[in-house]
TrEMBL record:
One of its GO terms (biological process) is nucleoside metabolic process. Residues 75-330 form the Nucleoside phosphorylase domain. It holds the Pfam family PNP_UDP_1. This is Nucleoside phosphorylase domain-containing protein. It comes from Fusarium oxysporum. One of its GO terms (molecular function) is catalytic activity. Residues 1-37 are annotated as: Disordered.
């Protein structure tokens, strides 16, 4: 009697799958593997070249960083950084500019922390030519009639918490700092198109996902003598203490003037008025002067309160987004800049064309102490008799060899297996050598 064929039971743990079944299982897993696993295992992390970034954008709060990131036209990969650099960076581009975003530590606002963040950023990205401090600030009432959600661009930053003591009074002794010449010349052009830029900022905000401006009725300015009571909400404060002003503009307005910067929050209208009278400022913040200690910067502030006891968080997100949108509009009129002799120029010449061009001879280059020199030859080159002084950096790039001299007894030669990669390698090596100085 013929034996019956037994079907393999799925519950039988002792029977191993047939070769054909195993192949089917492997094929299924390969075709249905989770996309997050593919991202982690199959995709290479994008390579980022530190020398390509020219704009540094520093924020103090997470809502400011979120607003800044929403303005990027494209996000880039991550970068390798020194173990002593505690910053976390977001890299991307706005128009023609490659931008580095950095934020102060949580609960670490103030000039001192801002100076530390700016110092690390500058060391890691030595090609930065423009630094921006963007976020929220307290508006100072006055003839310019600021409203919450407006933007103040700082023509000067004054550290207000330095004082000179007399027998009968204390005098503020502010240290005034200006943005770098590149920012000042761009600001002149920006002012020339003032009305157009205000409209463009509104357009940027309208296309921002999830952006909703607060009710204009919540923009209330109290007289300086009216102090907030902790036992009741501001909406119950006597309306007789409201200051009547001209109606708000339908779109955020841009103001230009001095910004006072210190290490503490100003929540007193009388103190605010005293700072404004002494220093003639339009806005008060907590970080810009600290960045100025490390690198000249342009401070752009969205007004979230009036630096009085009625300060609250209602307008903070709106002000952060408005300041970020203004910064994006400002960068649109700023020409891309790189450091002199920069290695940041794109390497677009085909390798075959470069090989047909004459060789470049680089010799007898002597650098003094603390000098930083960069040379790039897209053609073949001959490099000889190179010397560098103490704490100096020299970088030379050619189609097949990169040479770095950084004040060391010997130079370092890196042979490039691919002619098209030589510029990229030069960027990495040079940025690393610069950071070590």
């Amino acid at each position: 009697m013929p034996s019956k064929r037994r079907g393999r039971s799925h519950s039988d743990p002792d029977r191993s799958p047939t070769p054909s079944a195993e192949r089917k299982r492997q094929k299924y897993e390969k075709e249905h593997v989770d996309s997050s696993e593919l991202c982690m295992t199959d995709q290479k992390r994008p390579r980022v070249h530190l020398g390509k970034y020219s704009v540094g954008w520093i924020c103090a709060l997470d809502i400011e960083l979120t607003a800044a990131e929403s303005m990027l036209d494209a996000l880039h990969g991550t970068c390798d950084q020194d173990t002593h650099d505690s910053n976390t960076y977001i890299l991307g581009s706005i128009g023609q500019h490659n931008v580095v975003l950095a934020c102060l530590p949580n609960d670490g606002a103030g000039n001192n922390n801002a100076a530390i963040v700016a110092t690390h950023l500058r060391r890691t990205f030595p090609s930065i030519t423009m630094m921006l401090m963007v976020g929220i600030g307290g508006g100072v009432p006055g003839p310019h009639n600021p409203h919450l959600g407006d933007v103040v661009i700082g023509t000067k930053v004054i550290q207000y918490d330095l004082v000179k003591s007399f027998d009968d009074h204390i005098q503020l002794k502010g240290i005034s700092r200006r943005p770098d010449p590149n920012a000042r010349t761009a600001l002149t052009r920006f002012k020339a198109g003032h009305e157009t830029h205000q409209k463009n900022i509104s357009n940027i905000l309208q296309h921002l996902k999830g952006y909703i401006a607060p009710d204009p009725a919540l923009d209330v300015l109290f007289c300086s003598s009216c102090e907030y009571s902790s036992t009741q909400d501001c909406e119950f404060c006597d309306e007789h203490n409201h200051i009547r002003r001209a109606p708000r503009s339908a779109e955020p307005r841009i103001h230009y003037g001095k910004i006072a910067s210190g290490n503490r929050v100003v929540r007193n209208a009388i103190e605010r008025d005293g700072i404004a009278e002494e220093l003639d400022v339009l806005c008060i913040d907590m970080e810009a002067a600290g960045v100025m200690d490390s690198f000249p910067c342009l401070s752009i502030r969205g007004l979230s309160d009036y630096a009085d006891s009625h300060k609250n968080d209602v307008w903070q997100k709106c002000a952060a987004n408005t300041a970020a949108a203004c910064t994006k509009e400002f960068l649109a009129i700023v020409p891309p800049r790189t450091i002199p002799g920069s290695i940041c120029a794109s390497n677009n010449t085909p390798s075959s064309a470069r090989q047909q061009q004459p060789r470049i001879v680089i010799r007898n280059i002597k650098a003094g102490d603390w000098s930083h020199q960069y040379f790039e030859a897209k053609e073949g080159s001959s490099i000889s008799d190179i010397s560098a002084g103490k704490n100096s950096v020299q970088a030379f790039g050619s189609k097949d060899i990169i040479q770095i001299a950084s004040g060391l007894p010997t130079t370092q030669n890196i042979e490039s297996p691919d002619a098209d990669d030589s510029t990229d390698q030069l960027m990495d090596e040079c940025a690393s050598a610069y950071a070590r100085c």
